[in-house]
Structure formats: structure tokens, C-alpha cells
Specification:
Number of domains: 1
Strand order of the largest sheet: 1-2-7-6-5
Radius of gyration: 14 Å
Largest sheet: 5 strands, antiparallel
Strand content: 25-35%
Distance between the termini: 9 Å
Structural class: mainly beta
Helix content: under 10%
Order of helices and strands: HEEHEEEEE
Number of strands: 7
Shape: globular
Length: 118
């Protein structure tokens, strides 16, 4: 709902919209002045996260937990589905103002935000 209200549509793995990351990011806390305007009121903080990646080659063929450092990335669970098969998470980075959507699994470590429908 929040993204639709901002005029955003999914194209591949990137939610494209005019400066959407900047509208969602908090005005402070992001590394290297990667802060936003928070004009959406979402106030996304760079809380970091962790993602299990099973497609990385390891000697014992197990998954590897990749961490996203606090200050560099913000990662949130969504109610959306990835191609109807997996849960989805949203990712913001200090490096740019794109909002990315990726598949996620239950063992991933992301933040939760409750957004009230109006």
C-alpha cells in the first residue's frame, strides 16, 4: 500500500519510482551521507540484516549467512510474494536511492514495520 501510494511499480528486482529511496529513508543515520528526506513518513533507518544464501558455493554445500551492516542497509519483510513462490524483503542502501525487492526465506533476519491501511 505504501509503495502504491508513492506511484511505485516493480520492474525486475528494482522498485522504480522517482527518488523512492530518498522518500523512504530517515534524515540521519545512513553511512557516507546516504540519508533521505523521509517525505513519505516511513522513516527507514539503516538497521542492517542477515540473509541466508544457499547458492553460494561452500565446501560442505550449506548455506551462508550474509550480513548487512547497521548504517549501510535497511532490510524489511513485506507481505508480498516473489513470483508466488517465496516471501519477499525490501532493501535500501546508503549507496543509492533505489528500493530493491528480493526473495526471502524464514531464516533471514530482517526488520518488521507495521503500516496502517487508511
Amino acid at each position: 500500500m505504501l509503495l502504491k501510494s508513492l506511484g511505485v511499480e516493480l520492474k525486475s528486482t528494482v522498485y522504480e519510482g522517482y527518488d523512492i529511496g530518498s522518500q523512504l529513508k530517515s534524515i540521519s543515520g545512513w553511512k557516507d551521507s546516504g540519508n533521505g528526506t523521509n517525505s513519505s513518513g516511513f522513516d527507514a533507518v539503516p538497521s542492517g540484516g542477515g540473509k541466508s544464501m544457499s547458492w553460494i558455493d561452500t565446501s560442505d554445500e550449506t548455506s551462508v549467512l550474509v550480513t548487512y551492516p547497521i548504517g549501510e542497509r535497511g532490510c524489511w519483510w513485506t507481505s508480498g510474494m516473489w513470483e508466488g513462490a517465496a516471501n519477499m524483503f525490501m532493501n535500501l542502501s546508503y549507496k543509492d536511492n533505489f528500493l530493491y525487492g528480493f526473495p526471502a526465506w524464514p531464516e533471514n533476519q530482517f526488520s518488521v514495520r507495521c503500516v496502517k491501511n487508511e
